[in-house]
Amino acid sequence: MALKSIEYTVAEEGEDQGKVFVITRMSAFDADRWGRHVLHAALAGGYRAPDGDDAAEGMGSIAEAGMRIFGMMAPEAADTLLDRLMQCVRIIRDPAHPAPQPVIPADIQEVGTVGLLQMEAMKLHTDFFSGASVFIFLPVAQLLLAVGEDARSAPTSRAPSPA
């Protein structure tokens, strides 16, 4: 079975208007690994999922955070994760030969197009995370949240505790 793909045509005015991109979802294993790395980097950057035991709520909060979640990360981590997300994007340079090709920097002229492609790829993968993979990803998310909670509740002072 082929991985889910969508076509995205740039509608915004500018040099990229009319360009057609194909965004293909990562495999389940790659998406799971990527999702764990996103969550870990976001937690390290201060992201806090809502309290509660509802599995869908935790994953839903990540989906709801969308692209904003990358703003909570160290720049190097965000760059690495967004680069991996952009590997899912290919371009159809010539409609007469519609085989999608890897995107190269010369393919995109507008900074806004990069952001739109990242958002579309994130949406495609968020739908995946909120589906069946939540059962794979959730235990890791809960573990990372627990570790983060332990770190927040640990004493931060080296002063002797009262006896």
Summarize this, please?
This protein is of the alpha+beta class and 163 residues long. The protein has helices at residues 28-44, 55-65, 75-86, 111-129, 134-153; strands at 5-9, 20-24, 89-92, 101-102. Helix 2 packs across helix 5 (134-153).
How do the helices and strands line up, and which of them pair or pack?
Layout: E1 5-9, E2 20-24, H1 28-44, H2 55-65, H3 75-86, E3 89-92, E4 101-102, H4 111-129, H5 134-153
Antiparallel strand pairs: 1-2, 2-3, 3-4
Helix pairs in contact: 1-3, 1-5, 2-5
Q: What labels would you give this structure?
A:
alpha+beta; four-stranded antiparallel β-sheet; globular; 163 residues; single chain; 5 helices
Question: Explain this structure to me?
Answer:
The chain contains 5 helices and 4 strands. The N and C termini lie far apart (65 Å). It is 48% helix and 10% strand. Residues 53-59 and 131-137 have low confidence and may be disordered. It has one domain (5-49, 60-150). The chain has helices at 28-44, 55-65, 75-86, 111-129, 134-153, and strands spanning 5-9, 20-24, 89-92, 101-102. The chain is globular, with a radius of gyration of 19 Å. By secondary structure, the protein is of the alpha+beta class. It has a 4-stranded antiparallel beta sheet, with helices on one face.
